[in-house]
Amino acid sequence: MTTLKDVAERVGVSISTVSRVVNNEASHSVRSETRKKIWDAVTELGYQPTKSAKNQESDKKNPAVGSPVGCILAVTQNKYNHPYFSGILEGIEKGIAEMGYELAFVQTVDDLRNPAVMNRILYENTPDGLILVEGLEPDLYAQLKKRIPHLIGVDVSDPGIPRITYDRVEAAKVVVQHLLQQGHRRIAFIGGSGLSHAIEKEKRYRGYREALWEADISVDPDWVIDCGWDVEKSYQRTKELLKNKENRPTAIFAASDMIAISAMRAANESGMQIPDDIAFAGIDNIEMSAYSSPPLTTVHIPKLEIGNIAAKTLIDYIGGRYPVPVKISVPFELKIRQSSVKEPRES
To answer: How does residue 77 score in pLDDT terms, banded at 50, 70 and 90?
Structure first.
């Protein structure tokens, strides 16, 4: 078993210095560079700190109603203000509370890059269960799966854990088929490649492609924009796309409402009327989508319900009610608004 001494020898500091860092003692300052080296060594060597006697006594005096569980969001920031993830998080928090459990922490992908945060989750305050909202980098995911007894995934691809999801491929197909029904055959795509770093593997892109193929339409690679889920890049890349007046799409399907709305701004600034010159449709049905100009056609994803189901599934999983990993798929609904449907002209 790895000891404080092993970590101290690896870094070249005293045992007391290592102890102060792993126990988050504020009475003595340790340089940030040294702290990072210590946490890197803790991870590499697999050192497992134990709770201090003070913390153990506190736990005895203040027991949780249920075992602590955590949540990790695959968003870099604004976890409570993100228009998509915040809805799921609200459902998780309500579901956990209703089941009499404690949501011990909510962390983001950026948080996990801090060795101190990972160490607390893996070794100091290891939760009984964890909800992962969308995929993580393979090394981070492997560490969590090894240490956390019960994992639940929301839109996670691992079939070895219970998952809550919606059919992203089919949802994208429904949107593109709607655009096709409006007479569009020149349809562009804006989205992101995610962890695979290959747009061809992204589910909403696959749905877009399948809908076009079924209509005997080839995908124009010049009309496939990987903006990395960045609204600014969506705006800039759409402006570039629309500069070519000889080869413009007549409709754009965006894989999220946020990037659809920024692309709509680019179209407006390019002098195009929506939907007369170009139509738009997205996915998510965030609150803002009903108030864009014009209101955005989108797919409603039941975010609150997804979070609530994930929370209750985790508690059931901890309680041993699922002998095998389950996959729960929630329904979605196409919301047709003015961004994709032209108003009939008076004769």
So the answer is: low
Helix (H) or strand (E) holding 317: helix 303-318
Does the domain made of 168-300 have the CATH classification 3.40.50.300? no
Residue that the structure tokens 């014009």 belong to = 294
Pick the closest to residue 102 from 93, 110, 111 (CA basis): 93
pLDDT tens readout for residues 110-152: 888 888 888 888 887 888 899 999 888 888 889 899 889 999 9
Q: Hey, where are the domains in the chain?
A: 4-55, 65-166+304-331, 168-300
Residues in the chain: 347
Residue 41 CA, chain-centre distance (Å), reads 29
Given a contact cutoff of 8 angstroms between Cβ atoms, the answer to whether 297 and 341 are in contact is yes
Q: Are strands 298-300 and 333-335 parallel, antiparallel or unpaired?
A: antiparallel
Is the peptide bond between 127 and the residue preceding it cis, with omega within 30 degrees of 0? no
Q: Which two tokens stand for residue 324?
A: 């095998």
Residue 8 backbone dihedrals phi, psi, to 5 degrees = -60, -40
Describe the crossing of helices 4-11 and 32-45 by its angle, rounded to 10 degrees.
120
The residues, any chain, with a CB within 8 Å of residue 265's CB and separated by 6 or more, are 235
Q: Which secondary-structure segment (H or E) carries 242? A: helix 231-242
Q: How far is CA 86 from CA 31, 286, 332, in A?
A: 35, 10, 18
Which of 1.10.10.10, 3.40.50.2300, 3.80.10.10, 3.40.50.40 would CATH assign to domain 65-166+304-331?
3.40.50.2300
Q: Phi and psi for 87 in degrees, rounded to 5?
A: -65, -40
Amino acid type, 127: P
The CATH classification of domain 4-55, taken from the options 1.10.3210.10, 2.40.50.140, 1.10.10.10, 1.10.260.40:
1.10.260.40
User: What residues does 279 pair with on adjacent strands?
Assistant: 251
Q: What is the pLDDT of residues 319-328, one digit of tens each?
A: 888 888 999 9
